[in-house]
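Much of our argument rests on the idea that a fold can be written as discrete symbols. In the encoding step, the backbone of a single protein was reduced to a row of integers, each denoting a local shape. We regard such an encoding as a compact summary of how the chain folds. The record that follows shows the chain in one-letter code together with its fold in token form:
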Amino acid sequence: MPNDKTSLTRSALLTQPVSRRTFLRTSALGVVTGVLAACGATSDGGSGTAAKPKVGLVMKSLANEFFKQMQAGAEEYAKKNADKFEFTAVGMKDERDFAAQVDAVENFITQKYNIIVIAPADSKAMVTPLAKAIKAGIVVINIDVALDEEAKKAAGIDLAFFGPDNRAGAKLVGDALAKDLGVGGKVVILEGNPEADNAKQRKLGFDDAVASGQLQLLGSNTAHWETEEANTLMTNFLTQFPDVQAAMCANDSMALGAVKAIEAAGMIGKIKVIGFDNIPAVQPLIKEGKMFGTVEQYGAQMAANGIDYGLRAMNGEKFTGWVKTDIKLITKETV
């Protein structure tokens, strides 16, 4: 739960294909209203009319349903507060298109945006352009994927992280799978992009579940968050490990690829699949038993809260450390 202590046209996409929940529902609109009344903005050509703050959301691949949900949540929030701030959302072509995120940040700097909310694709590479934004007087809000602590220190910035405990979430769904498989269950791991902190944390969470559940890890490799790459990787795992019993996927896009490979091999019902994100596409698969479970991390609310935290920071509120957002285990019983 949150702890307050601790390209580029409007809604343009770089591809064509979208905390506390109670806090968002009950107080976000009121806080935004108060913040904007207080921070107002610069004068508009000396007319005395306050200019609305400009907020830019930079996401990862919009081919990933999770970020489509994030965009939709942010746009809905922005629409409800259209008189309070201007809003632009951008995304990447794919999960490794780091240059697109750098370009997005550079463009927001050039266009003199007031707030940048970002889910970084690369936890180290994005620190330098974001440090430049901070130096230019822009409020930066890091959501979803934490920036690298050493890289931030080297760049001389102290930036809070607003996001979930990815390691705990992966262990949560991994523990449920381990309980179902029993001691000695044979599993493989499909890892996310190794440059992203959340991929590292989810791998650690799966490793924790393997150890505590006394599972047998047959193999682990990256599919870079991508569905088709995961399909290929899982197909290879099935050939290499014909006795595999489960696939632990670091996001739902890869889980979809794993299910596709398992289905093609005629192994549906024999191999369990877990994911992370609870995108709409996996919910029927969980109901049908083609997937065992996933983790909800409320991306739409995370983005809306990120905007709100940015507005509060413009008003002088300070955030440091890790402001945790919600996670929830999703299985056939809860979907």
User: Anything to note?
Assistant: Residues 1-49 have pLDDT under 50 and may be disordered.
